[in-house]
Amino acid sequence: MQPLKCDLCDGTLTMNENGDFAVCDYCGVQYRTERLRVKVQEIKGVVEIIHGPNEKERLLNNAETFTKLNKYDEAWRIYATLQKDYPDDYIVWYRAFETTLTANITNNTYHHLSGFVGLNDLVETAVKLCDDNKKKEELITHSNALWEEYLSLPNTYKRFISDLDNPNFSDDYYDYIYKPSRNNVHLQEHIFVKQLNEWFYMHQGRCRHCGGVLKGIFSLKCVDCHKSKDY
Q1: CATH number for the domain formed by residue range(s) 53-222
Q2: Res 223 pLDDT > 90
Q3: Which residue ranges make up each domain of the chain?
Q4: pTM
């Protein structure tokens, strides 16, 4: 098949390393995938673009390289493409989660609470798609380790506590963390949810284990779980 040519200068078009657009070697004009499909059809008729396993591995390697270079936006774009083209592969979903949380850990940035829902969905999707029980356990263990690392950042605790007095933040906490976890036993046990709820209870002077009221004269005990105040 003859090379694709630029509409403006007739220069040769070359795909970028992510495979999401082509660039004219002469004038630098970019062509998105949709336009490239049209140009291919003009030359050869209707064409179906088939992504093979080598292409998937190439994109996964590129995304991993961008993550190591802290170029997270580039990595996310690749994972978005992979999720669209290979939705049945658990690794493309898990790597997207891994890259997002790694970005927060590396940059010591505070992730919006609504983002937890999306990140948790990525992990759950990966676990559902994985057929190997041993690998499923590895995914869960590794994701929990990343959450632990994120929660151990001083900025995570400080920002959460300081933001609790903000009405908008409190609404987000109730909507995305507290209320869903109250109705979902599995979610209650999630390491991120457990830690945030514990910080929230302590901030309100309640039992850090269950959120119950603390009462007592000489020592305070929870009226619900009967555990003594330990913070």
Answers
A1: 1.25.40
A2: yes
A3: 1-49, 53-222
A4: 0.70
